[in-house]
């Protein structure tokens, strides 16, 4: 089972203000001021990339002297791999007794949101901290139900039989052994009663790391989805990528072209879209760029009243032409690639 955790706060008017100020408060608290003399301080604004737990991310965080930090975070999962199924199953029982198999759950979090958190030092002078995000959860699960299927083994000297399997909720597949004349074979029966679930989940992120003041930061975070590593450089405003873009989305073997304009927001390196048009659907986009030569696109596709969330990240090239090559996931849990380029002025 795969779960999709999404978060988005994506239009310019909803973006946090002042997150890129180098110092948020003029008067630091006493505890952080005293420790700053002995330990390397993260105070300042950092451009970070993250990897691990099956996903990539871009973030800009401003650490202040009062032990708080704020900024924004963009997440994009790696495209899910296709499942490989052993046609012989894994059962060792003899006869018709089915054996329940275990299913791995892959959790993804993606989207764009502003974050706030707290930081301090541990006893060894490493930076420690945490932040939390309340996520909207969309997941696919297996419902209870009855599956009937015919198994034909006449080509191997067996016969034809009809099997009825009563699946319990949450069970994705069962393995059963059938005894034919002269031999026994194992078969996997899959539960096709797929249901869509929704809920809310709090993603608590706790991290520890090291700082080389003015040069780089490295954080290792423990999350509900696994370990994530953050690497950061001092924040810099980057090349303006506003203008008319042409995008190519590839989904399930089909190609879609998208036309849109990117316009800057009040925060450097964040853009939102205007004049968006696709083949039978509209969309809105938040684009985030990083000095690590990375870009992320957080997109809500709208066909009628249904919104489909898409999040991709990848490389940003500015050598000959401003272009992006990205991949990620679109709802519901489908791998997608999205490449785009900025049209040059005539």
Features:
8-stranded antiparallel barrel; Porin; 9-stranded mixed β-sheet; disordered N terminus; 62% strand; 3 domains; 346 residues; Lipocalin; single chain; globular; 1 helix; mainly beta
Question: Could you describe the 3D structure shown?
Answer:
- With 346 residues, the chain is an all-beta fold.
- It has three domains: 2-83 and 99-140 and 197-234, Beta Barrel (Porin), CATH 2.40.160; 143-193, no CATH class; 243-342, Beta Barrel (Lipocalin), CATH 2.40.128.120.
- Helices cover 2% and strands 62% of the residues.
- The protein is built from one helix and 22 strands.
- Strands 1, 2, 3, 4, 6, 7, 12, 13 and 14 form a nine-stranded mixed sheet that branches. The chain has an eight-stranded antiparallel beta barrel with strand order 15-16-17-18-19-20-21-22. A three-stranded antiparallel sheet has the order 5-10-11, with no helix packed on it.
- Strand 8 and strand 9 form a beta hairpin.
- The longest helix has 7 residues, at 30-36.
- It is globular.
